[in-house]
User: What shape does this take?
Amino acid sequence: MEIIQNIQNNRIDSSGYQLETPELVKIAKALSSVTRQKILKELTMAAMDVSEIAAKLGQTEANISAQIAILQKAKLINCDYRPGGHGVRKVCSLSLEKLEILFQ
Assistant: This one.
């Protein structure tokens, strides 16, 4: 909590784009979870669907879907739907190559 409160008074610069406080809080919340950090790390290698992420991390698809929703709200990942063997797959990829937090 203290980290998020300290961050609220600053701005984040992602490739020159200034985010306002509400977006910054969403990003801080998204990065506060070890599971979400692991998801982001997996997505640095390649785009993956929810099933693949769940299998790699040894977690349920339901839990990974909930974590992905938080990462999407923070605009850290993009997801789209693609045809799969048994219906549609939700495929996720990173939305940013680099994220910098500047304290000025």
